[in-house]
UniProtKB/TrEMBL annotation:
Protein name (Swiss-Prot/TrEMBL): 60s ribosomal protein l34-b
Superkingdom, natural source: Eukaryota
The organism's taxonomic lineage, starting at the top: Eukaryota, Fungi, Dikarya, Basidiomycota, Agaricomycotina
Keywords: Ribonucleoprotein, Ribosomal protein
Length: 114
């Protein structure tokens, strides 16, 4: 007959946060090892890919990790990927250029009438 294994936590239900694995200890006793949830890597807010250079941790563990592990040294560091940042910069530049072109055309029309 198989050896009985007792729970080591108070929560008896088979939930996502209460996963466990049966492990045989060096003394030959079967014990439950409670398994923590796996972390997911942070994703880019625009395109949704995993952010390179940012460690994957459970939310509370980010408080104990140093800043270089949580961000990359760039605008929108731990929030957007490099490609999305580049597209944002280019878009902003082109919008500013379009404003300048509109202003120049307006001045030329005003100068041509007088």
């Amino acid at each position: 007959m198989a050896q009985r294994v007792t729970l080591r936590k108070r929560q008896p239900y088979n939930t996502k946060s209460n996963r466990r694995r049966v492990v045989k200890t060096p003394g030959g006793i079967l014990r439950y090892h409670h398994i923590k949830k796996l972390p997911t890597a942070p994703k880019c807010g625009d395109c949704g890919i995993k952010l390179p250079g940012v460690v994957a941790l459970r939310p509370r563990q980010y408080a104990t990790v140093s800043k270089p592990n949580k961000t990359v040294n760039r605008a929108y560091g731990g929030s957007r990927c490099g490609d999305c940042v580049r597209s944002r910069v280019v878009r902003a530049f082109l919008i500013e250029e379009a404003k300048v072109v509109k202003r120049v055309i307006k001045q030329q029309k005003a100068g041509g009438r007088s």
